[in-house]
Write a structure and sequence with these properties.
Helix 2 crosses helix 5 (about 70-80). It is built from 5 helices and 3 strands, in the order αααββααβ. A hairpin with a 2-residue loop joins strand 1 (about 45-50) and strand 2. By secondary structure, the protein is of the alpha+beta class. The longest helix is centred in the first third of the chain and has 17 residues, at about 20-35. It has a 3-stranded mixed sheet with strand order 1-2-3.
Length: about 120
């Protein structure tokens, strides 16, 4: 039987100190389901610290909405995280949302390299 890597990481995360990063990754992937597409377009979870979910927002109306729905968002996020971690949701104003870095592509190894022969000057094209 094949065990999904997600399950292996969940079991290993506490020992390796990865639990905060795993919580943030889960919060970001589940954010739109917890708050809806309109609010998710103007906000993004930044961190889960000491029971507080810090959320970047780009508009004061989004901050107000998060403050008004804080209890419901915390409950939905705790369900998504499968543990009771979030007790408060705190909006943080930003000019723009932070970009989530995509995995970098591996460097191309099959690129043509210039031919060099020792003792000779480089060839000119």
């Amino acid at each position: 039987m094949v065990t999904p890597i997600r399950d292996i990481l969940r079991r290993a995360a506490p020992g390796w100190g990865l639990q905060p990063a795993m919580r943030l990754a889960t919060a970001r992937t589940q954010w739109e389901k917890c708050v809806g597409p309109a609010l998710a377009a103007m906000s993004l979870p930044l961190a889960v610290r000491e029971g507080r979910l810090e959320v970047a927002v780009t508009h004061p109306a989004a901050a107000q909405e998060i403050k008004l729905r804080a209890a419901a968002i915390a409950e939905a996020m705790n369900r998504a995280l499968s543990e009771h971690v979030v007790t408060a949701v705190v909006p943080v104003m930003r000019k723009r949302l932070p970009e989530i870095a995509a995995p970098r592509a591996a460097p191309a190894r099959d690129r043509a390299r210039p031919t060099r022969v020792s003792g000779r000057a480089p060839r000119r094209a």
